[in-house]
Write a structure and sequence with these properties.
Layout: E1 2-7, H1 13-26, E2 31-35, H2 41-52, H3 60-84, E3 88-92, H4 95-105, H5 110-121, E4 128-133, H6 136-142, H7 155-171, E5 176-180, H8 185-204
Parallel strand pairs: 1-3, 1-4, 2-3, 4-5
Helix pairs in contact: 1-8, 2-3, 3-5, 4-5, 4-7
Length: 206
Amino acid sequence: MFFSIDGGDGTGKSTQGELLCDWLRGRGHEVVTCRDPGSTPLGEAVRGLLLERHDLRIDRRSEMLLYMAARAQLVEEVIRPALEEGRTVVSDRYLLANVVYQGHGGQLDVDTLWEVGRVATGGLMPDLTIVLDMAAEAAAARISRQLDRMEQQGSEFHGRVREGFLAEAGRRPNEILIVDATGTVEQVQTRIREAVEGVLSHESDH
């Protein structure tokens, strides 16, 4: 099984992803975790370029293609081999983030991004993408560390990102689930586990 956790910056996806992995391991799953971009030498190099090099001015299309290249490598090096070995993969972001941040946020063509993404991933998509959702202002207030280059975009950009996640979930209700990210860590985790449980139960019935 392949799960992706996504959402706007500050929604707590990394923390929730770790808790989900612990829960899955407790249920007997051999879990492989990864982050997109990242988790391969190429992916980490691209991540450094895209998120940490504040001195670089990167065109939106160049940015999108770098993300896609990192993802292609991640699929071939980490995700596909793990799935073929019967492991469960949990990824911190995946293709949806590209569509939302560069498409809805950066105003590139969304359908083109999905199409390029299908090429980059060889059509490999998560069984479920969980999107943690909360008001952009509330999410921004949660971020106490130094902001990366994407997080430094203005409130208008992050507003478009949130609307983008909601819009894509509306377009793909069987693939993308919006989860309320407000409340305690435990409350949010319970919502996530209920969603994942539904997918696991459906899979065991087939």
